[in-house]
Write a structure and sequence with these properties.
With 223 residues, the protein is mainly alpha-helical. It is 62% helix and 0% strand.
Length: 223
């Protein structure tokens, strides 16, 4: 029997839990596909309804608006990534090896996880790179923060900062470096494909070079 990963989501992210119905799961699955294909700006509930054979009203019974759906998708991704990092680092005791493995997990290509049948993590990873910052770069970010909508991202950063302190207990900026690793990993990959003059990896299109760059940056900072 196939084991399916269950991620508990903040109930304030949705009107009705999409994981509990076939329609809800179709909303998640197909919204990922549409946002990946057309971008978040062009994505609408009307287009999503046409694809899944439902109505806009049906989708609004699950999500207040498309921005709340985007926050849901990003929060789901960060929770899944934290689980993945914890799983891969579980039997590693050397903090230097942990950091290298962590950077690899953050910056390298993501393969779809077969244990989550209605979420394509490979496509969602690309959405996070291109669209993820739109979840919190809003006028109402403080209000959303009070509702703990960004807690999965904070939890991942806390995990990373803890590993940094394992390697260098005296380092004074572990949380800042943790967020820098994540954001830099995404920005360099985005620049590599779309704004080539802003990175040194445009010609190669090799994400392993981004991994090496981040390793140099991190270990130079905390040694």
């Amino acid at each position: 029997m196939e084991l399916q990963l269950q991620i508990k989501m903040n109930e304030k992210l949705f009107v009705r839990n999409p994981e509990q119905t076939d329609l809800g799961r179709k909303i998640i699955q197909n919204s990922i596909q549409l946002i990946h294909e057309n971008g978040f700006e062009a994505f609408t509930f009307k287009k999503l309804a046409e694809v899944i054979g439902s109505t806009e009203a049906g989708i609004y019974r699950y999500f207040e608006n498309k921005h709340r759906l985007l926050i849901y998708l990003t929060a789901w991704y960060w929770s899944w990534l934290e689980f993945r990092v914890t799983f891969h680092l579980n039997n590693i005791s050397d903090p230097a090896i942990k950091l290298k493995k962590l950077i690899q997990l953050l910056a390298a290509n993501v393969v779809d996880d077969d244990t989550t049948l209605y979420v394509n993590e490979s496509l969602l990873h690309q959405i996070i790179i291109a669209e993820g910052s739109k979840a919190y770069l809003t006028k109402h970010v403080s209000e959303d923060n009070k509702d703990q909508l960004f807690k999965p991202y904070k939890d991942l950063c806390s995990l990373i900062s803890g590993i940094i302190l394992e390697y260098s207990p005296a380092y004074t900026h572990p949380r800042s470096l943790a967020t820098t690793i994540i954001e830099m990993a995404h920005l360099q990959v985005f620049f590599m494909h779309h704004l080539p003059s802003l990175t040194d990896f445009a010609n190669s299109k090799d994400e392993q070079l981004v991994v090496q760059f981040l390793e140099d940056l991190v270990f130079s900072s905390i040694r």
